[in-house]
Specification:
The chain is 76% helix and 0% strand. By secondary structure, the chain is mainly α. 41% of the residues are buried.
């Protein structure tokens, strides 16, 4: 009898992958680890960091902190005015950024159907505005528009365009294309399609992005005064410049309390916004139970949303008006703008400039590597599934929130005052901020892992470190790598800012080039920063694709 059972193809005929996915992930993770160790060693050698120098630096810092105690708080009226000016700068800058980001995001998205040359141009604008820090833009705009809040608001706006437009473009690309195609089939133009079908669906995402960016901009606006761009940072720079450390400590306390209160408010608003839009993946709010779409009128929810939109618009207009947009002052800025733009071409690259960029890169990557290692330890003490003692987790979480509440530039100013100019002060400032940020990201990632492998190993008698190594760490490696690269990206942007305070890197060179009207050097610095930041972002994107 002939068998009718189908035969199986030989195993060799199955092409399969050239390398097992697990092996590829292991190679990528090992390569990044080796690179991090090498960069850290090179950073230590570059800035002359050793255990003895670190101990001496910390001792000098402790002496400075003793000189700053007790803090001398400004008067209530002065504090209220400085805080109000800081908030108005952030609101005005964020609002201007939203107005520019919405059309830019639609043009930069892959779904754009207009002229082909517009999309690459829009993506270049997004990359450049995102790569250059807010404080660097503030230096440039102070030169063009003069001292005061208008320069700070424009700096906040230009830098925010990069983030808002990028994230909104991603949301536009992920939106359901069927309604847009239907509108085009009926003869609608691209602007009509975007306004009537796409924008309503991505509006919840846009709201979340704007709230998150506003939180970031308030933190940034708190230190813009260091370069004369208004806000509470003006008082901080004045106090440090006059060696009034008690007053500087009081202003730092005001900044920390302001940032922490705003962070709590931002978290509450984002949670409420996410809760409202969680029931509908199309971007429209879920309807009340038992009601059809045609039955929905001006109910309480719609009244609150419209009222919120009106209040937001009024606050934005008030913030713009508070910046004193004097037409004569704005018209007088055009000659400065023309001279700046004319002086930027051709860019003047030099060996000194490239060495300064390398110093910023080493500071950022070295501090991010050490901060990731320290942040991992703190995250293990903080995450609910790894902490050995839950009261300790609460204490560490509160400490990390306070540390994150102090802007990086404030750390840099303190370390420069204690240790002197140079990359050592910048490295310490980035180390502290990178540690706090990495600990938050790592703790959140640890708590989102699948608990079953860890619980299974614990139930059969495995020790704590064994259960972690076999049940948690293999799941955590992709998140650890991705978040670590993101921390390095943020540290690189901040390293440019810290140089403005004299903490090493290319920031001081940028401030000097603008002060001496060497705009060709300024253009070269901006291009170099953008290239390096884009390279780090590309590395992070490739690593996540191979690890996740």
């Amino acid at each position: 009898m002939v068998s009718t059972t189908p035969t199986r193809a030989p195993a060799a005929a199955d092409p399969g992958p050239l390398r097992p996915p697990g092996s590829a992930r292991a190679l990528v993770a090992a390569g990044l680890l080796v690179a991090a160790v090498a960069v850290t060693w090179l950073t230590f050698w570059w800035i002359g960091l050793s255990p003895s120098s670190l101990a001496a630096g910390l001792d000098d810092t402790v002496r400075l902190l003793r000189r700053m105690w007790p803090p001398d708080l400004p008067g209530a009226g002065d504090v209220a005015w400085m805080i109000a000016e800081t908030l108005l700068i952030a609101v005005a800058g964020t609002g201007l950024a939203v107005l520019a980001s919405v059309p830019l995001a639609f043009v930069a998205a892959r779904t754009h159907r207009g002229p082909r040359w517009l999309r690459p141009a829009a993506r270049v604008v997004v990359v450049l505005t995102r790569a250059v820090p807010t404080l660097a833009f503030a230096i440039l705009f102070v030169r063009i528009f003069g001292l005061g809040p208008p320069a700070g608001a424009l700096a906040v706006a230009v830098h925010s365009v990069g983030m808002i437009a990028k994230l909104l473009a991603d949301a536009v690309e992920e939106a359901d294309p069927v309604p847009a195609e239907a509108a085009r089939a009926c003869g609608a133009g691209e602007v009509q399609v975007a306004v009537s079908t796409v924008l309503p669906r991505v509006f919840p995402a846009l709201t979340g992005i704007v709230l998150h960016r506003l939180d970031i901009n308030i933190r940034a606006s708190a230190v813009l005064g260091v370069v004369g761009a208004g806000g509470i940072g003006v008082a901080l720079q004045t106090a440090l410049g006059s060696l009034n450390y008690h007053r500087a400590a009081g202003i730092i306390c005001v900044i920390v309390v302001l940032v922490l209160l705003l962070e709590l408010l931002s978290v509450a608003v984002r949670r409420r916004t996410a809760h409202r839009s969680a029931g509908d993946s199309t971007g429209t709010a879920a309807l009340p139970a038992g009601r059809a779409p045609h039955d929905v009128g001006w109910d309480r929810g719609r009244v609150l949303r419209v009222s919120g939109a009106v209040v937001t618009g009024v606050v934005f207009l008030v913030s713009l008006w508070s910046l004193d947009p004097d037409p004569g002052r704005l018209s007088g800025a055009w000659p400065n703008l023309r001279s700046v733009l004319a002086g930027m071409w051709p860019p003047a690259f030099s060996g000194h400039l490239l060495m300064a960029v390398l110093e910023s890169l080493l500071m950022a990557l070295g501090a991010a590597s050490v901060g990731a290692a320290c942040g991992l330890v703190l995250a293990l003490l903080t995450a609910v599934n790894t902490t050995p003692w839950h009261p300790l987790s609460t204490v560490v979480r509160v400490l990390l929130v306070v540390v994150r509440g102090i802007p990086d530039l404030v750390y840099a100013l303190l370390f420069v005052a204690a240790l002197g100019l140079g990359p050592f002060a910048g490295f310490l400032a980035l180390w502290i901020s990178s540690t706090a940020l990495a600990a938050k990201f790592f703790a959140d990632s640890l708590e989102q892992l699948d608990p079953l492998p860890h619980e299974a190993l614990t139930s059969v008698g495995a020790r704590r470190w064994q259960a972690f190594a076999a049940g948690i760490w293999p799941q955590f490696v992709p998140s650890f790598t991705g978040n670590g690269l993101f921390v390095a990206d943020l540290a690189l942007r901040e390293s440019v800012v810290l140089g403005i305070a004299g903490a090493g890197g290319v920031g001081y060179l940028m401030q000097e080039s603008i002060a001496t009207l060497r705009y060709d050097t300024t253009a070269a610095i901006v291009i170099a920063i953008a290239v390096v930041v884009y390279a780090i972002e590309t590395l992070a994107r490739v690593a996540r694709r191979h690890l996740l």
